[in-house]
């Protein structure tokens, strides 16, 4: 436990007391920091030699906010609102000098100061909404008084970080300064204010102009938020708090904020979102990182210029890397180059890039049809046709041409990476990098670790993910790795529910009601039903003949109804509509398949649909953890949060299961097993955890 003396230091510079927070890594406002701040402010009041106080952060951040790890634990005094009120009430001038992130509670501390200075690298924001919360230390009352009600509400609802200049324009910052030293810049500003006899400008006393207009804007914002926040709890509470800032005296508004903050703190959405925040930062902590450093990563190559190859090329270019793209002939490489340029032309069309910006990026792009062009690259990503022989042929070329130590990665989404590695002379350099389409947009990157790979190759893959701003998850080798393997199972559960009585449209509606943007049949139509069809045909030879198999999707694909790209799939897309319509012919196919099997359809409620859907997902997730395909349950959570549209406020399938209770999940599986003991076979790990009274979280400590 850190003590307040070590995390908050007070040093006199002339008649200015500099209070600096030193609580690595981001100066979170844990209890020791709050205690230290309180004491330092009190001491400054009592010290006749002190005329003013300057608050700064040490390290890279000003203050990144409340200590998120404290949520859900018993509150420890002093509370952050108390500390902020104390700063604001100071009888001596208080200035905050911001040189890095001032987020959430960090910005609340700064807003309770009398003046604020920002250096170029400052970032100011109130992103509590991303954690299912709202600014709970006066931010919803002070920000409107500094920047206006609507702008303040929008800042809180978006969770955006403002640059120093944007923050000044918004009214959050009074003075910009150059450099990186908040003490020097802050002291100069404090002394200037003292010389001017600047008043103690307490934010609580600032008026909100034109309350009627502000309330009208908030009405509109509330209606818009109700539509957009899709079941989220805290956004509407934020609007309510800002309304209180307009309508109520400060202290009453503060009380309202506190009450609504506690409601958010106690909501399951906060638990899910906080879990997601930390889980995404845990996935990079893998065993291989303990003893290995990344290899050089200065030049990369991508083999293949199709959708995936071009997307991966753009991801690498956007990460600042020089990229050589290899295709088999002039026509193919021209197509590959066009695929890359299309992405940047799209950004230019949207006004998000200039021609010069595109040219600067493409200066690092080298198209080629000769493998000799990649002799000196540090890492190669193969993204050619999903056929093991085609991939082995590419790896033969890589083995022949690439320098010793080059990392050789395959983007395969299901082929056996151990087999690919074993086909060349350097299996220790081979790894799987499973990108998700579009590869330059989707955050998830499954880093698939074959049996013989060197640890430093794994660490290099995680370094590449960091450079690309991807969310990496370590996966073991199996068919579908983590995501697609589990997807195949809960998709099967959805097919069973459909054949047993629910329509695909009812199932999609239930899944959307759970918080997904789309249901599984909509996703199939979007991705293209022919992809799943090819997978089913590939697996047909090895499929367990005793396993229940639903043929509805095959009937649909046999008609060439592959989804949006063919104008119909499970849904109809008249005139290329983006939103599909129910198709009576699909319902007729479903009925015909039921009759073939003598199934009398029964009704399913949305709740029943989701209990089966989630039980299947969680059960397979438990098997994936048990087999070591995923290191921990949190790796399964992050896979589904960042690659499969799982609703973030639920924290991921395994977090969701913990919140429902594993006994209830197991009970469901055992009930469903009476209908189909083969499909609904409880994962031994799930049975073990329930028997021991534990949850998945107990397995999340890094292995
Ligand atoms: N509390 C505890 N730990 C935190 C933290 C926080 N607020 N922010 C970051 N960390 C840890 C993080 O888990 C990681 O740990 C390390 O710091 C580096 O983080 C009352 C209630 C500041 C932009 O939401 O956005 O204030 O993995 O990898 O990429 O109104 O961290 O090293 O062990 O993200 O340089 C509001 C959250 C809180 C900001 C830096 N504040 N943090 O990004 O590093 S709620 C936030 C960030 C609140 C009040 C309310 C980012 C960052 P480890 P990192 P980064």
From TrEMBL:
The keyword Acetylation does not apply. GO terms for molecular function: (3S)-3-hydroxyacyl-CoA dehydrogenase (NAD+) activity; enoyl-CoA hydratase activity; isomerase activity; NAD+ binding. Pfam families: 3HCDH, 3HCDH_N, ECH_1. Keywords: Fatty acid metabolism, Isomerase, Lipid degradation, Lipid metabolism, Lyase, Multifunctional enzyme, NAD, Oxidoreductase, Peroxisome. Pathway: Lipid metabolism; fatty acid beta-oxidation. It is found in: Peroxisome. It catalyses: a (3S)-3-hydroxyacyl-CoA + NAD(+) = a 3-oxoacyl-CoA + NADH + H(+). Residues 480-573, 610-694 form the 3-hydroxyacyl-CoA dehydrogenase C-terminal domain. Residues 300-475 form the 3-hydroxyacyl-CoA dehydrogenase NAD binding domain. GO terms for biological process: fatty acid metabolic process; lipid catabolic process. Its main location: other. InterPro entries: 3-OHacyl-CoA_DH_NAD-bd, 3HC_DH_C, 6-PGluconate_DH-like_C_sf, ClpP/crotonase-like_dom_sf, Enoyl-CoA_hyd/isom_CS, Enoyl-CoA_hydra/iso, NAD(P)-bd_dom_sf. The keyword Amino-acid biosynthesis does not apply. In the N-terminal section; belongs to the enoyl-CoA hydratase/isomerase family. Belongs to the enoyl-CoA hydratase/isomerase family. This is Fatty acid oxidation complex subunit alpha.
